[in-house]
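Its record is set out here:
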Amino acid sequence: MEQVIKKIICKHLEGGKVIGNSQHGFVKNKSCQTNLIAFFDRITSLVDKGEAVDVVYLDFSKAFDTVSYDILINKLGKYNLDDATIRWVHNWLDNHTQRIVMNGSQSCWKGITSGVLQGSVLGPDLFNIFINDLDIGIESTLIKFADDIKLGGIATALEDRVIIQNDLDKLEKWSEVNRMKFNKDKCKVLHLGRNNQFHTYRKGRDCLGRSTRERDLGVIVDHKLNTSQQCDPVAKKANMILGCINSCVVSKTQEVILPLYSALVRPQLEYCVQFWAPHFKKDVEKLERVQRRATRMIKGLENMTYQRRLKELGLFSLEKRRLRGDMIAVFRYLKGCHKEEGENLFILASKNRTRSNGLKLQQGRSRLDIRKKFLIVRVVKHWNKLPREVVASPSLDIFKSKLGKCLSGMV
């Protein structure tokens, strides 16, 4: 029955565009990667222009467990869900009880008045509805992945920092009204850009701590926006998993090793990689060495060159796979499931040029490497070189097929 109610709620939310664009968690066609790209496109652009930027990472205390049922039900009505659905959700929430068992002693059963069940079918959607109005009235850039929230804005002048502080005050007020609490010990400020004044912000009466690096949705982001910080632990973990495969798996045939590598090792190297793609040659090589090692493990290929092994196995180098991933991401932003967001990220070039693939992008100017190497900028020259028949693909699957053939001809 939860599945049925979920379909009703999701259809209503999508049809009325109820959930704001700032939410990327548990939302169709959005992910950790779209969250990071959307937020840091704005941040890197500001830093590239010479602005000081402050990013505040916010953390709720037991967010899913503290969702108030009566407030949630009121919000369901506010977003015009039908009465029958609201009654069903109310009854579903109202029927949950809990008790404490300690050293063999048991408390009485008590009804639960807050908390959406994590792991339930409806829980994520109900949480998104509950937190949807969090960013109303916020002037800074705010983005969410479920309960992971970050707020960023210019911090060059005093009035800029006042805006960020005012936004933090609004968020504190929201948490009080909605009976949720921020874990202020885990709320941190990342100061970016030259001439940053390292301003101290408050959350209520408490001052927020500073940080030089944060793990943002599994990706390490530091105060210099240096992707090397991500490459080291990723390569280390991938090599560790590969070592376990090498020592625990007896058969070293292609049929055994290649699926294990593809399922367990390579995803470690490519999680959100369109956001944090390595800039420096040493980092590119560090990641590539993992695949070199994996392909060398396969029986019969040990003495071949790396390029020959890739050809035998039908694989691209990791560097070429990242380029392929960049192109696929752009296709999604321009013609696919992320088209609405793509309108804010990419600018189409003038169509009066005869030598064009039909969807040519405008190349922006950048000063700093953190911007030049960011997906939105670095991919333009490669996308503009794609043949018209590839760009004009009517679907993502056809685009991937044609793109693969195009990249196969590259060294």
